[in-house]
Write a structure and sequence with these properties.
31% strand; 42% helix; signal
Length: 109
């Protein structure tokens, strides 16, 4: 009984900790439109992750390839159009939030 209680308590602490991490990680996000397609660039410490907006599902699909022209368009974006957003809010817009979070945790974010 004591082991079960300890396990449940530990799980709760880990879950709370993971949620706090999502609130403390802040990314810069900018919309870049190219050839009628909407892309989002997520930036933290000059490391970028690109997503493409799926117009059917209205969710962002992770792009595992960095395109130089998209990055240049991001750099040319007016600073007023770049917003700061928490990881928790980003994950609401992503079609595969676990994969997005894994990429962030494995990269130099």
């Amino acid at each position: 009984m004591k082991t079960i209680f300890t396990s449940i308590l530990l799980f709760g602490v880990l879950l709370f900790s993971a949620q706090n991490v999502q609130d403390t990680i802040t990314l810069k996000r900018a919309l870049v439109e190219k050839e009628g397609i909407s892309y989002y660039v997520y930036d933290k410490s000059e490391t970028c992750l690109f997503t493409k907006l799926n117009t059917t599902s209205q969710k962002e699909e992770i792009m595992l390839v960095c395109y130089g022209d998209l990055y240049e368009a991001y750099l040319a974006t007016d600073k007023k159009k770049i917003e700061k957003i928490t990881l928790r809010n980003v994950l609401k817009n992503i079609d595969n939030p676990k994969k997005f979070e894994e990429i962030i945790s494995l990269s130099d974010f």
